[in-house]
Amino acid sequence: MGYLIAGNWKMNGSPALARDLAAALSAKARARAPRAAIALCPPAPLLAAVGAAIQGTSIALGGQDCHFADKGAHTGDVSAVLLKEMGCRYVIVGHSERRADHHETDAVVKKKAEAALRAGLVPIVCVGETDSERETGETAAVIARQVRGSLPDAATGANCVIAYEPVWAIGTGKTATVADIAPVHAQIQTLFGEGGPAGKRAAAGLTILYGGSVKGSNAAAILACPGVGGALVGGASLDAEDFWKIVTACP
Ligand code: PGA
């Protein structure tokens, strides 16, 4: 896969913003075909509006989370099957905000990623260490545990995306440096290939995103890091101009 820039709107937006933002990005994509693949992940109630606005462009739709069951008595949850029917191509699973706010374990994230694959979606599986884990030198151990525990056996480099998002860099304005990012991306690539039932997962073509305070002004440096295949963008994805700067910064 080539570069992917995914916008995670989180719990932001409104019908008006969804329409305007998606329309502005669609106009840019129509005017000049972007080199990178683009995904917009709005809150679930806005999927239809964003889906309508991006129709006929190369921009894809994504969900921010899914339940691990295909349907049933799970009030407030959204299934991967429904996301697929709403036109999604991607779904984010295991975002650090869900791991923290909803106590999602690696085992739960793995089941959600399995549900995504079953539904024909590309899961964007998020991993990343907290500030205190980083301070105590546990980054590599945390990443190993999360990658080993959160990925389905059936994941391959062609059907799955991983996002490395150091928690200390999310929404904080602190950006990781090449020295922070490159070794973790290399570690994820290796761990991914060692996974799967026989310890020989098909890792070719795996896209590993970086996420955490990515914006127009730092995108070029981050996207040039070895092993970085794109970005998962929170705050800056709510601004069409800034988001597009990230898209066009892809090498
Ligand atoms: P941020 O969020 O760009 O606002 O730091 C990134 C993310 O959480 O996906």
CATH superfamily: Aldolase class I
Unreliable stretches: none
Number of self-contained structural domains: 1
Q: Cα-atom Rg, whole angstroms? A: 17 Å
Mean pLDDT: 96
- Determine the fraction of residues in helical runs and give it as a percent range: 25-40%
CATH class call: Alpha Beta
Morphology: globular
Q: Tally the beta strands.
A: 8
Distance between the termini: 14 Å
Question: Which ligands does the model contain, each kind named once?
Answer: 2-phosphoglycolic acid
Question: Can you give a write-up of this model?
Answer:
The protein has an 8-stranded parallel beta barrel, surrounded by 5 helices. It has helices spanning 15-31, 47-53, 80-85, 96-101, 106-119, 131-135, 139-150, 178-194, 219-223, 240-248, and strands at residues 4-8, 37-41, 60-63, 88-93, 122-127, 161-164, 207-211, 230-233. It has 251 residues and is of the alpha/beta class. The chain has one domain (4-247): TIM Barrel, CATH 3.20.20.70. The chain contains 10 helices and 8 strands. Residues 8, 165, 170-171, 211-214, 232-236 line the site of 2-phosphoglycolic acid (PGA).
Keywords:
251 residues; alpha/beta; TIM Barrel; eight-stranded parallel β-barrel; 8 strands; globular; binds 2-phosphoglycolic acid
